[in-house]
Design brief:
It is a single chain. The protein is of the alpha/beta class. The protein is built from ten helices and ten strands. It folds into two domains: 8-141, Response regulator (Rossmann fold, 3-Layer(aba) Sandwich); 176-331, Alpha-Beta Plaits. The protein has helices at residues 22-32, 49-56, 72-80, 99-107, 120-165, 176-193, 207-214, 216-231, 258-274, 305-321; strands at residues 13-18, 38-43, 60-63, 90-94, 112-115, 197-204, 240-245, 248-254, 290-297, 327-331. Helix 7 packs across helix 8 (216-231). The longest helix has 46 residues, at 120-165. The protein is rod-shaped, with a radius of gyration of 38 Å.
Length: 332
């Protein structure tokens, strides 16, 4: 047979005895005085017990039941009401051998029951056993908390990754992937509910010349400022603004007819000019301007979504061909 002796130094006991009789506390102190890895604290005033438990942080409690002013049952109840100490194992140490007292003690959270005055070896082993169980419990709880924290951190990371997969890294507005999903969703909803759907294509005028004249870093700053500004024009939660590619953006407007879409498109055009972003290489204006193409339809089964997008893109092409810095609307 192997060596079955337990190395109790791994589980040092900090015991706390609550008993109103000093003779009992002194007796237990004497009993455990020379036992290795067991440190005993005592309390003869049960009204101070909870505060002392919080201060000492014992690994196991020894508790008398029948005490004046506050009995052991009241202390058991207080222990269960305090999250910080409710899991500390409690051994009832009493002269009361009645079944009713035992039953009530266990119902109130006691873990063990000993009759005064216990055998030294039995008491030591029970203190060690409950301490080991408590320490193992604390370690498991610590591990679980760490795992929960990691899980929460991982969840946040996943959310950030998901968000980034739908966000344009430069302008921080939605990207083409985000638009494609939003468009498919709103197209089917408009078809189901027989409501108008409008789409605005937006293009920064002479942006290649802007990059050539001011440099690509300035061009990036220009795109970011224009995108963030235009995104703020439409306030409805269902409206969807995205970067379509390069210097081109789109604004999807569910439940919006042609008149409403034209009104919003004109607001976008005016807002872009009002930014007063210098553009000396433009053939339209000394400041950055935008051209906009608007398409509106009530989707039907006979319609193809790509034809609707093509119509908006053709409207944008017409706006650019006709001199830029303007809005052109086409119907599907």
């Amino acid at each position: 047979m192997g060596n079955l002796k337990q190395d109790w130094s791994q589980y040092p006991v900090t015991a706390f005895l609550i008993d109103d009789q000093q003779s009992v506390t002194k007796s237990i102190q004497k009993l455990l005085k020379h036992v290795e890895h067991i440190n005993l604290y005592t309390c003869n005033d049960p009204t101070h017990a909870i505060n002392e438990i919080l201060s000492i942080g014992p690994t196991v409690l020894l508790l008398d039941i029948h005490m004046p002013v506050m009995d052991g049952f009241a202390i058991l109840e207080q222990l269960q009401q305090n999250e910080a100490i409710k899991d500390i194992p409690t051994i009832v140490l009493t002269v009361d051998t009645s079944i009713e007292t035992k039953k009530k003690a266990f119902m109130l959270g006691a873990n063990d029951y000993l009759i005064k005055t216990p055998d030294k070896t039995e008491l030591s082993l029970r203190l060690r056993y409950h301490t080991r169980a408590y320490v193992d419990h604390l370690e498991r709880e610590s591990t679980l908390r760490a795992l929960r924290k990691k899980k929460d951190e991982f969840k946040v990371l996943i959310q950030k990754l998901e968000l980034s997969s739908y966000q344009d890294s430069l302008t921080l507005v939605a990207n083409r992937r985000g638009f494609d999903e939003a468009f498919a969703r709103e197209w089917h909803r408009a078809m189901r509910e027989t409501t108008p759907l409008s789409l605005i294509f937006i293009d920064l005028d002479y942006f290649k010349q802007y990059n050539d004249f001011y440099g690509h870093l300035a061009g990036d700053d220009c795109l970011k400022e224009v995108a963030q500004t235009l995104q703020g024009i439409s306030q409805r939660p269902t409206d969807f603004f995205a970067r379509y590619g390069g210097e081109e953006f789109v604004l999807l407007l569910p439940n919006t007819d042609a008149i409403g879409a034209l009104h919003i498109a004109e607001k976008l055009r005016i807002k872009a000019v009002s930014l007063n972003l210098e553009h000396q290489a433009s053939k339209v204006c000394d400041y950055v301007t935008i051209s906009l193409g608007v398409a509106t339809t009530i989707p039907m089964i006979k319609h193809q979504p790509r034809d609707f997008i093509y119509t908006a893109d053709q409207a944008l092409y017409s706006a650019k061909k006709q001199g830029r810095n303007q809005v052109v609307c086409k119907g599907i």
